[in-house]
Every structure is written in structure tokens, then in C-alpha cells.
TrEMBL record:
It catalyses: Thiol-dependent hydrolysis of ester, thioester, amide, peptide and isopeptide bonds formed by the C-terminal Gly of ubiquitin (a 76-residue protein attached to proteins as an intracellular targeting signal). The gene is USP25. Residues 502-519 have a biased composition (Low complexity). GO terms for biological process: protein deubiquitination; proteolysis. The keyword Cytoplasm applies. This is Ubiquitin carboxyl-terminal hydrolase 25. It comes from Amphiprion ocellaris (Clown anemonefish). Coiled coil: none annotated. InterPro entries: Papain-like_cys_pep_sf (IPR038765), Peptidase_C19 (IPR050164), Peptidase_C19_UCH (IPR001394), UBA-like_sf (IPR009060), UBA_8 (IPR054109), UIM_dom (IPR003903), USP (IPR028889), USP25/28_UIM (IPR054108). Its EC number is 3.4.19.12. Homotetramer, inhibited form. Homodimer, active form. Interacts with ACTA1 (via its C-terminus); the interaction occurs for all isoforms but is strongest for isoform USP25m in muscle differentiating cells. Interacts (isoform USP25m only) with MYBPC1; the interaction prevents proteasomal degradation of MYBPC1. Interacts (isoform USP25m only) with FLNC (via filament repeats 17-18, 20-21 and 24). Interacts with GAPDH. Interacts with SUMO3; the interaction sumoylates efficiently USP25. Interacts with SUMO2; the interaction sumoylates efficiently USP25. Residues 762-786 have a biased composition (Basic and acidic residues).
Length: 1067
């Protein structure tokens, strides 16, 4: 077959497959042979093929169009019907009129073909898109109704209760992670904390404020004191900073929905604090210059020494946060070196009067708290917007500032000159080394030592005297076949043909039709042939080489390679020594007298105008790093800090570094009581007015807990009364064993899983188990009294269930679902609970089918009536049965979610998996066998979110407006609300999944895209990145269908078997 024929055949196959798909879509027929027959009869005419299938009356149930375009919402019983409005082209298919069916099919074909020609999207894809859009629209509508509940507190105050002396978090009250990060960093400076807590406003504050600053700063100062006092003594896990935030937000010109820049906010905060303390200092001064503690704590001075148009100058300037450029530097010292020198400064060190301009900065006084603002943003002129710099920048935990001090100016200049000279020499050596490591004149270059080695290997290969293509005879037919006419091979057969061998001219005559095949040269196909052609050498080799030539060549190549390797090692050793010399240039003790220890790192994740902030703060008492992420405060490590802060491989990087003078321990030391000498902690730190403020808030929180506990107790009492009322009604109703209860009688409230109401359908298995136990007891028991038979039957049934409970079974065979006693045994329920539950089983009214079972039932019911309240705690009994009901309900959530996941219906599967995981987590808190494998549920919950994230990202990448809207809708309404759930328990795989999802969207930053897409991305990213561990209010759990025990066990077994095995290598 020629290449042209092969292409035509492939095109024909694709066209036929397209027709089959369209025909299958229009008619609903899935029988491929029937579809192919219809196309063959109609000669490829789609309309005739449809007519043929209609006349054949293929027995395939037609799916109603309105049903096809409906989807059931997980969280409600409502249905969304897309395109359900009246349409003039709608044809009634409910009748038996075949003409209507024909017109409907023709209309569907016409619309399908037109849509495909215009958009290239099939009807099925459009239908899926419309269903997703409708689902998102419904979720959006629901979210709008509950907008005020977004990021709401947990209704259970016990979830918000502070544990021991754990640091207090700050609630994110709407893109305020910038506030939390800075405030926590300052609060953990204990000297700063003391200054704020003990601040007393000036006496004139009680009068009307004199100016705008006082009108703004003094209320803010009071709110900051209140906030700090709560962070010290609150019983809450986190507190609300809304009042202080609102005052600050008024001072920013940007919209409240935008996130504030950390450095801008810190500047403003320090300005306000400076003004507030300045007013107090001026009031307290007595004829001397007032000292402002904020200035003394955060502000330093540097000397600017320089030349301007040939004239030397020196100026002393004050600084707070010191700005540093990140781009182009690898570590903090390189940033500082560049910041300390501006312009051309050679003239500073010479007596010549140069016209060059430049300056150096030398610190004359460093503040106790030294803050560096890392400038990680630059304006992209081409795109017309700011962009974040993600370059890696390393910084030390201990920073020595000696080399930047004015008193070390001369020695530093000498060392800088020495470093400059060493770096020049280093550059030359690196250039020479590069010539060895990247050798060649073309675009591809290789290490010279390897090039010489390859040449030596080539020369030493076995010589080949013939060309690698000379031994291929193009005149012989494939495989050396004779002149016998063979049918043309199929594509698969051609791929498996052996390579041609030289077999001489073919024997016998050949026909003209085989000439094209004889002239084809077979090509080696590495993916379809199992070995190389036998006559082609494994490696290239020289045609002719003498022993003498080989000996000389090998000697030269060996010598040259050794020389190159020695030169390379010498260069690498010299480079290493110079780099080490540069690193140790400032390591002598005289240049390590001004140590600053890293106190806090403020991290930003996201893009230039949107993202999330958190802080790493060192705890000197526990000697570990703590991560402050809004309401979440957790222990961390230097390794995690480096991963999140250095940048270079993630969208997160340090934005601000806060160092403290290591020789001034008062900055982080606790305060001591002057009388007792004990460390002041908790409420003892607070002045009287703040003690009263915190005490009131704690009392309010205690009251909230008390009201919650009372409410829960009332609910439990109501449930208990309802059960008691139902039981009393059942006991009062006139029921005899022989007669069934009247229709209006209240049935006994037996648990659903005991399945007593009816002896029919799937509930028979429990009754059969009971009757089987009675029969075995009757066969084995000599004494035939009803009580003896009951005791024997209960013993046999318990033994059977005990074996189930002790048996090691695969996940798909969970005996806990088959019987409640198995669940109770595995979870070590009290013996009295087991006995009463088994008695309840044998007291089943449905056993009254013969006299023996009837008498045993009567004995069991009598024994139940004789059990005294003090013998079996009914509250405990009901609690165990409620736990089992919760277990079955969790199982149904899990089973339904996994079924939908296996069907790739991730949108609906998510809520089932989310609730299954949450409920299962609550069950497992009571015991290992109370619930299901949390790793399994966590894996599929995580995978479902990752699949949805992938779908949404693909829709966004398409650039089509409906697709983009749908994709962002999936993220906003489904994925983003679930991210706090992954962050809540802080497991490594969940954190990596969140990181993957965020990185996928952050990877679009800086890419060329339409302005409307850039706007949507800018609006969406803060929602994705600004996620604390506060749980967003979800819709009510999906309504669950009721399953009999048999149905539940069968479906659960089927789903678990389909999973194969519990994933051990998940994210």
C-alpha cells in the first residue's frame, strides 16, 4: 500500500467513525454492528441510515431530551432543567406518531451538524457544558442567599476555645491577612507588647481632639490595646480585630475588597504609633527633649557619603524599614551591598577631582528592631501591570551588620576591594572552566573530556568494511517471497514484517501490481519491532584503521583526556578556594560584633496585586518557629520557613524580614513582678482597665459555652422524651401476639437496621438468621423449655457474630454493616448493651410463624420488660445505637461519593466525599473501629478536588467565555470553599494538594492573555490564595436514600471492590 493509499484509508476510517458517533448520538442505538449495517445500506447517507434504524425499530430505550438535560443538585431535591423554555421547534415524542419521531431526528441532525460546523463542539460537549453552567448558577444563587455566612465561626464554641497557653490567632475579616501577619510579628516583640499595653492616652484626650491626627490615632491606639489584651488573656482560640482594622482601612484610599501592601501598612502603622507616643512624650517631658519609644525601637540612622558633580558631601538620615531590591541578587548580603552603594564611587577613594556622582551609605546607629522590606515587584512596561519577582533569595538566621557600620568604613572598603579583585579572578576562572565543560563551535556543546572519550570509543570499535545500507537488496520482495501473488498485508501485519534480507532475485515471474511493494525499503520501527536489523552494527565504527593508527590515536586521546581532566580539577579547586575566601572575608571576630537574630519573616503568596500573607515568628522560649496564618497558629521549622520564604520554586516568598539585636534581650524577655520576682504571664501582664475588658469578654465567651451546652442538653432531653413517648405509646397500644396492630397504632421504635417492621423483602435476612439460631439451639439443646432455647439461641448467634467480628476481611466485606452486634463487639460496647440488643432481635414480632418461635419471642419480650433502669443505662444504650446509625449514614455518604467519583461525576461526588470525611473523622475520635479508613476517604476527597481543579484550569485555558466562566465557577463554588478543610488537619498530602492547586493557577501569572482573562484571574486569585483554616458554611448535607442492610452491603462491596486497593501512594 502506498503512502497516499494509507492516508486515504486513515481518512476514510476517521470519517466512518464520525458518522457512527453521530448516528449513535441521534438514535441512541449502541449496537455497533447495527449502526455499521445502517451506514452500509445507506451508502454513508446519515438521514437514510436514521430512517433505516427507525424502520428496523431498534429496541434501544430512547432517552427523553428533557431528562438528558437535567441534573440533580447534591444539596437539594430541586432539579435544574437547561433549555426548558418553550421552543417552536420542540416536537412531542410522547405519542406513537412515527412522523413526529422522524421530524425530531431530522431536526436534531440539522442542529447538531450546524453547531459542529460553527463551533467544532459536539452536542454532547455542549450539553455537559450547559449542565455544569446550570449547576454553578444554582450554587451561586445559594451562596448569594448565605453571603453573610461566608467564613463564619463554628457554631460550637468549644471549637473556638483556646487550648492551654497556645498563642491566639486573628480572624481574617475580609482580606486582612496583611494585618494579621504584621500585628502578630509586632505582638511577639514583648517590649513592643508592653509599650502598647501600658500606653495611657494624654490627659487632654478627654477633651475634644485638637487635630485630625489625634482624632484618628488615639482611638486606634485604644483598639490596639484592646486587641493586644485579648491576645494575652482571652479564652478564645482566635479574636476578632475588626475595630482596629476598620480605623486603618479608612486611611487607605483603595477599596476594602483589595488587599493592602504589607510595607505600606507597616509604614502607616509605625507613623500612627509614633504620633500617639509623641503626644504622650510631649505631655510627660519636664524641660528636656522628649523620647519617643517607637522611634528608639524601630528607627536608625545612616551616613550618606558621596560625590555630586565632583563635590563631596556627607548627610545623616533617619530610616525605619530599609528597602532592598531582590532582582539580580542571590542572598541578603548581596542586596545590602548593592543598597549601600549607589552610582560611581571611585572618586571617593582618590584625591582626584572627578565629575562622577555617587554615594555610599554607612549605618551610624542601628535600631533594636531592624526591618528589611524586600522589593519583589516590578512594573512590566510591555504588559502595563506590576509583576512579582519569584527569584530565590537566601537570608541567614543570624545576620552580622559590622561590615555596614560607619566605624568599620575603612576596613570594609579594603575588604570590598579584595572581594572585587577575587571576583574578577573568579570570573576568568569560570570562563576558562566553561570552555572545558561546554566544548564545540556549534549550538550543541559537550564536556571536552567526554568528547575525547567518545572519539576513543569510536576508534576502538570493530571496523565495518561495508556500508550499513549496501547489504539491503531493494529488488527482493518483503520477506524473500516468491512470485506467488499475495494479498496486500494489513497495517498491523506490515508493522510486524521482518527486515529485508539479501536473497538474490526473486524466483518466478512477478506481476506489475506488486512492483510498488518490491521497490519499498523497509524502515526500522523501534516501537513495533523487537530487535534491530541483524546486519546493521550496534554502534558506528571506522571503515578502515590499522593497528598502528589505532595505537597512536589511543595514546594521544588518553593523554589529552588526562590533561583535560587535570586542568578541569585544577580550575574547579581554584574556584572553590576563591569562593570560600570570599565567604570567610567577614568571619573574623572584629566583624562579628553586631549580631542581629531573625525574629519574623512575613511571607506573601500570589501575584503583584493579589495574594495571601502569613508570618513565621521565632519563639525563644520553646526554641522553635511558629507559623501564624490568620486563626491558625502551629509549630513549624526552619526547613518549612526556607521552603516558603526563599522563593525560586514556588509562588510564595519572603516580603519582609524582621531582625532584632541579639545583644538586647529585653526585646523578647518576659516581665518580672518587682515584689515576688515571678514572671508575669496571662492576665497579670495587663493594667487594670484591660484586665476588666478581657474579663468581660471571657465571661461573655463562658456564657456562650454555657448556653451551647444547655441547648445541646435540651436537645438530648427532647430526643429522650420523644423516644420515651413513642415507647409508651407502643406499650399502651392493644397488641396481642396473634393479632397484628391496627393501622393507626404507633409502632415500636426499633432501630431501622434491626428491620422489624415487616418480614418481607430484603429485611428477611435478619429474621432468617434469628430463626436459624433457634433451629440450631433446638437441635442441640436437650431441655426444650422456651427460656432454655432462647438462651442457647442467643449464645449461638453471639458466637456467630463474634467470629465475624474477629475475622480479618478485605475492605469490601465489612461485617459491621451486616449486624450491629459486630460493630458493638469491635468497639468494645458494654456487655449489658450487647445483651439488650440481642434480646431485642429475638423479641421481633415477625418471628411468630410457629409455636416454638412465638414462645421464644414472648420470653424475650418478657425479659426486656424485666430489665430495670439501673441495670442498663438507656442513655448509654441509645448513644451506642445512635453511633451505629451515624456509622451507616457515613457509609452511605462514602459509598455514594465513591460511586460518583468512579463515574467521573466529580461535581456531585465532592459534597458526598466531604461530608463522609467529616462525619468519619468524628466517629474515629471515639475509636479506631468506629468508622472507615480515613486515609482512603482523605485520598478520594483530595483527588476529587484535584480533578475539579484540573477541569476548571483546562476550561480557563480554553479562553472561551462560557468555558472560562464555568471553570471559575467550579473553583469559586466548589474547590475554594473546601481548601480550608484540607488545611485544617495539616497533613502533608493535603498541603501538597493545596499547593498544587494554587501553583496551577499562579503559573498563569505573567503569561500573555486577553485583558478580560487577566481581569478574571486577578479577581479570582485572592480567593484561592487568601484561605485561612476557617470553615466556610456549606449547604445542608445531601439527602440520602434509605437502604436495606442487604442492599447496603451489596453496593458497598461492589464499590470497594472496584477501588482495587487502598491507595498508599496518594498525594
Amino acid at each position: 500500500m502506498t503512502v497516499e493509499q494509507n492516508v486515504l484509508q486513515q481518512h476514510s476510517q476517521k470519517h466512518q467513525q464520525t458518522l457512527l458517533n453521530q448516528l449513535k448520538e441521534v438514535t441512541g442505538t449502541t449496537d455497533v454492528q447495527l449502526l455499521q449495517q445502517a451506514l452500509q445500506v445507506s451508502n454513508g447517507d446519515l438521514a437514510e441510515a436514521v430512517a433505516f434504524l427507525t424502520e428496523k425499530n431498534a429496541k434501544v430505550p430512547q432517552q427523553d431530551e428533557t431528562t438528558y438535560y437535567q441534573t440533580s443538585q447534591v444539596a437539594s431535591d430541586r432539579y435544574i432543567s437547561v433549555g426548558s423554555q418553550a421552543d417552536t421547534n420542540v416536537i412531542d415524542l410522547t405519542g406513537d406518531d412515527k412522523d413526529d419521531l422522524q421530524r425530531a431526528i431530522a431536526l436534531s441532525l440539522e442542529e447538531s451538524n450546524r453547531a459542529f460546523r460553527e463551533t467544532g463542539i459536539t452536542d454532547e460537549e455542549q450539553a455537559i457544558s450547559r449542565v455544569l453552567e446550570a449547576s454553578i448558577a444554582e450554587n451561586k444563587a445559594s451562596l448569594k442567599r448565605t453571603h453573610t455566612e461566608v467564613w463564619s465561626d463554628s457554631p460550637n464554641p468549644h471549637d473556638r476555645k483556646r487550648i492551654d497557653n497556645c498563642p491566639v490567632g486573628l480572624k481574617n475579616v475580609g482580606n486582612t491577612c496583611w494585618f494579621s501577619a504584621v500585628i502578630q510579628s509586632l505582638f511577639n516583640l514583648l517590649e513592643f507588647q508592653r509599650l502598647v499595653l501600658n500606653y495611657s492616652p494624654p490627659a487632654r484626650v478627654h477633651d475634644l481632639p485638637r487635630n485630625q491626627k489625634e482624632h484618628r490615632n488615639l482611638p486606634f491606639m485604644q483598639e490596639l490595646r484592646n486587641l493586644f489584651s485579648l491576645m494575652v488573656g482571652s479564652k478564645r482560640k482566635y479574636v476578632d480585630p475588626s475595630r482596629a482594622v476598620e480605623i486603618l482601612k479608612d486611611a487607605f484610599k483603595s477599596s476594602e475588597s483589595q488587599q493592602q501592601d504589607v510595607s505600606e501598612f507597616t509604614h502607616k502603622l509605625l507613623d500612627w504609633l509614633e504620633d500617639a507616643f509623641q503626644m504622650k512624650a510631649e505631655e510627660d517631658r519636664e524641660g528636656e527633649k522628649p523620647k519617643n519609644p517607637m522611634v528608639e525601637l524601630f528607627y536608625g540612622r545612616f551616613l550618606a557619603v558621596g560625590v555630586l558633580e565632583g563635590k563631596k558631601f556627607e548627610n545623616t538620615e533617619m530610616f525605619g524599614q530599609y528597602p532592598l531590591q531582590v532582582n539580580g541578587f542571590k542572598d541578603l548580603h548581596e542586596c545590602l551591598e548593592a543598597a549601600m552603594i549607589e552610582g560611581e564611587i571611585e572618586s571617593l577613594h582618590s584625591a582626584e577631582n572627578s565629575a562622577r556622582s555617587g554615594q555610599e551609605h554607612w549605618f551610624t546607629e542601628l535600631p533594636p528592631v531592624l526591618t528589611f522590606e524586600l522589593s519583589r515587584f516590578e512594573f512590566n512596561q510591555a504588559l502595563g501591570r506590576p509583576e512579582k519577582i519569584h527569584n530565590k533569595l537566601e537570608f541567614p538566621s543570624m545576620l552580622y551588620m559590622d561590615r555596614y557600620m560607619d566605624r568599620n568604613r575603612e576596613i570594609t572598603r579594603i575588604k570590598r576591594e579584595e572581594i572585587r579583585r577575587l571576583k574578577e579572578h573568579l570570573t576568568l576562572l569560570q570562563q576558562r572552566l566553561e570552555r572545558y565543560l561546554s566544548y564545540g563551535s556549534g549550538p550543541k556543546r559537550f564536556p571536552l573530556a567526554d568528547v575525547l572519550q567518545y572519539a576513543m570509543e569510536f576508534a576502538s570499535s570493530k571496523p565495518v568494511c561495508t556500508s550499513p545500507v549496501e547489504d539491503i537488496d531493494t529488488s527482493a520482495p518483503p520477506g524473500g517471497t516468491t512470485g506467488q501473488q499475495l494479498p496486500p498485508p494489513s497495517t498491523a501485519e506490515q508493522d510486524s514484517l521482518p527486515p529485508l534480507e539479501s536473497s538474490g532475485p526473486a524466483s518466478g515471474p512477478t506481476t506489475a501490481t506488486t512492483a510498488p511493494q518490491q521497490q519499498r525499503v523497509p524502515i526500522h520501527k523501534p516501537f513495533t519491532q523487537s530487535r534491530l536489523p541483524p546486519d546493521i552494527p550496534m554502534h558506528p565504527a571506522p571503515r578502515h584503521i590499522t593497528e598502528e593508527e589505532l595505537r597512536v590515536l589511543e595514546g594521544c586521546l588518553h593523554r589529552w583526556r588526562s590533561e583535560v581532566e587535570n586542568d578541569t580539577r585544577d580550575l574547579q579547586g581554584s574556584i572553590t578556594r576563591i569562593q570560600r575566601t570570599i565567604e570567610l572575608m567577614y568571619s573574623d571576630k572584629s566583624m562579628m560584633q553586631v549580631p542581629y537574630r531573625l525574629h519574623a519573616v512575613l511571607v506573601h503568596e500570589g501575584q503583584a496585586n493579589a495574594g495571601h500573607y502569613w508570618a513565621y515568628i521565632y519563639d525563644p522560649h520553646q526554641r522553635c518557629w511558629m507559623k501564624y496564618n490568620d486563626i491558625s497558629v502551629t509549630k513549624s521549622s526552619w526547613e518549612e520557613l526556607v521552603r516558603d520564604s526563599f522563593g525560586g520554586y514556588r509562588n510564595a516568598s519572603a516580603y519582609c524580614l524582621m531582625y532584632i539585636n541579639d545583644k538586647k534581650p529585653f526585646l523578647i524577655e518576659e516581665e518580672f513582678d518587682k515584689e515576688t520576682g515571678q514572671i508575669l504571664s496571662g492576665m497579670d501582664k495587663l493594667p487594670p482597665d484591660l484586665k476588666h475588658y478581657v474579663k468581660e469578654d471571657n465571661e461573655q465567651f463562658d456564657k456562650e459555652i454555657e448556653e451551647w451546652d444547655t441547648l445541646q442538653a435540651r436537645k438530648a432531653q427532647q430526643e429522650k422524651l420523644a423516644l420515651a413517648t413513642a415507647a409508651a405509646a407502643a406499650a399502651a397500644s392493644p397488641m396481642s401476639i396473634e393479632s397484628s396492630p391496627p393501622d393507626n397504632a404507633v409502632p415500636q421504635q426499633d432501630p431501622e437496621y434491626m428491620e422489624q417492621p415487616s418480614p418481607t423483602n430484603d429485611s428477611k435476612h435478619l429474621q432468617e438468621d434469628t430463626e436459624r439460631a433457634i433451629s440450631r439451639a433446638a437441635a442441640e439443646q436437650e431441655e426444650r423449655s422456651p427460656e432454655a432455647l432462647l438462651n442457647a439461641a442467643i449464645k449461638l448467634e453471639y458466637g456467630r457474630l463474634l467470629r465475624f467480628a474477629q475475622e480479618d476481611t478485605p475492605p469490601e466485606n465489612d461485617y459491621r454493616l451486616q449486624h450491629i452486634i459486630v460493630y458493638f463487639i469491635q468497639n468494645q460496647a458494654p456487655k449489658k448493651i450487647l445483651e439488650r440488643t440481642l434480646l431485642t432481635q429475638f423479641a421481633d414480632r415477625n418471628l411468630a410463624f410457629d409455636e416454638r418461635c412465638k414462645s421464644i419471642m414472648n420470653v424475650a419480650r418478657a425479659k426486656l420488660d424485666l430489665i430495670k433502669p439501673e441495670e442498663v443505662n438507656m442513655d448509654e444504650y441509645e448513644m451506642w445505637h445512635q453511633d451505629y446509625r451515624n456509622f451507616r449514614e457515613t457509609t452511605i455518604f462514602m459509598m455514594t461519593g465513591l460511586e460518583l467519583f468512579q463515574k467521573t461525576n466529580y461535581v456531585e461526588a465532592l459534597m458526598y466525599l466531604v461530608y463522609a470525611y467529616q462525619y468519619n473523622k468524628e466517629l474515629l475520635l471515639k475509636g479506631l473501629y468506629r468508622g472507615h479508613d480515613d486515609e482512603l476517604l482523605g485520598h478520594y476527597r483530595r483527588e476529587c478536588l484535584l480533578k475539579l481543579n484540573e477541569q476548571a484550569a483546562a476550561m480557563f485555558e480554553s479562553g472561551e467565555e462560557p468555558e472560562v466562566t464555568t471553570g471559575l465557577g467550579i473553583m469559586n463554588e466548589l474547590v475554594v470553599p473546601c481548601i480550608p478543610l484540607l488545611l485544617l488537619h495539616d497533613t502533608e498530602r493535603d498541603l501538597l494538594a493545596v499547593e498544587d492547586m494554587r501553583n496551577r493557577w499562579c503559573s498563569y501569572l505573567g503569561q500573555e492573555m486577553e485583558s478580560n482573562l487577566q481581569e478574571k484571574l486577578t479577581d479570582f486569585l485572592p480567593k484561592l490564595l487568601d484561605c485561612s483554616t476557617e470553615i466556610k458554611s456549606f449547604h445542608d448535607p445531601p439527602k440520602l436514600p434509605s437502604y436495606s442492610t442487604l442492599e447496603l452491603c451489596e453496593r458497598f462491596s461492589r464499590v470497594m471492590a472496584a477501588l482495587g486497593r487502598v491507595p498508599s501512594d496518594g498525594r
